[in-house]
Amino acid sequence: MRDPSTPEAPATLFTNARLVCPATARDEIGGLLVEGGVIAAIGSDLRAPAGAEIVDCRGATLAPGLIDLGAFVGEPGAEHRETIATASEAAAAGGVTTIVTRADTTPPVDAPEIVDYLKRRARDTASVHVYPMAALTKGLAGAEMTEIGLLLEAGAVAFGDGPRTISSSRVMRRAMTYARDFDALVCCHAEDPELIAGGAMNEGEFATRLGLPGRPAAAETLIIERDVRLAALTGCRYHANLVTCGASLDVIARAKVSGAAVTCGASIAHLSLNENDVGEYRTFFKVAPPLRSEDDRRALVQGLADGLIDVVVSAHDPQDVETKRRPFAEAEDGAIGLETMLAAGLRLVHAGEVTLHRLLAAMSTRPAQLLGLPGGALRLGAPADLIVIDLDAPWVLDPASLRSKSKNTPFDGARLQGRTLRTIVAGRTVYAYA
Predict the structure, then answer these.
(1) Which domains are delineated in the chain?
(2) Does the model's pTM come out above 0.85?
(3) How confident is residue 10, by pLDDT bands cut at 50, 70 and 90?
């Protein structure tokens, strides 16, 4: 992994900022000094050392950088869709200072040498931190578990088979047992492959009206129910990558009350959009799991507000024109999201549905805690992975301006409020809004 603090980043003093940090419950006007790539001082009356850069935030919000838990990056094998370099540029523009990459590459990240390759590529080409998630089963086939200990030693930070569900309960139990012994986080996609076979969108009245085969929400809930029971049985740390419906949230809530080490995430698309946005077969809204009903979307938003949903992710899944400009049922699943995750999330804040602290906790503090990463907080000695945000800046999304190699965004032409002004990684500015 590239270390953006080498050579050492110059000292920087941020002044006149609204300092917001969910980890320390901080929300105050003040300044922050960065030296040697870490936070050296926080307060209201700071002095810049000789030669330091002074950044006047002019009342903008200074917060911990975002951590995206599970983005697809095309390397190796799908560089035409995305590269580590282009993904990191998009991430920086969206305020994301750390990307955790999915394991479903070609070849998959199921061996230490692939983890090492990703770390070296990130070190050479990335402008943000990049950590690989390793496969839970060899070849993503769901039959034989990977060498969890060796992959952890190589630098993997979590384990999951990307968008594939492990159908075998026996394999899942065995993998969870070994993961528990290494205190490894298991991050799984939850959709019963037989129940969703041939489905194109959320099963229901709207799919019927469009004449499209459906994917029932029960396919997700059944797998999550199985997985949380296995997590309780084995004592494994289990994370449901994408929860998309109220019934699944009920399962997660019961598991947490029982004391199981269970957490869950939701994508910004599922928190912001619903099945009706598919409209006249708009393939950029085709994602997996599919967009659900408005009732389910509202349940997700409430789950986020209540802290039941631990993590908000971009679910970044770039697809090229050839795989998206097809009949809806034939188009590939997936939407990009690194650059729009924060701005779309701020819609919920401006609507009064979620507090800013809660949103930032789910996008920064909580992912850092789950993965054991040092970021996610404005704290003395913490890495200076920071973002400066204008919470009120209005803008209209033009896909052509996005830095991702692919442009399959469901927010094409969306009116957004709030954008990243500056992104700092290990004390060095990697993005500044012109």
Answers:
(1) 12-62+383-432 (2.30.40.10), 64-371 (3.20.20.140)
(2) yes
(3) confident
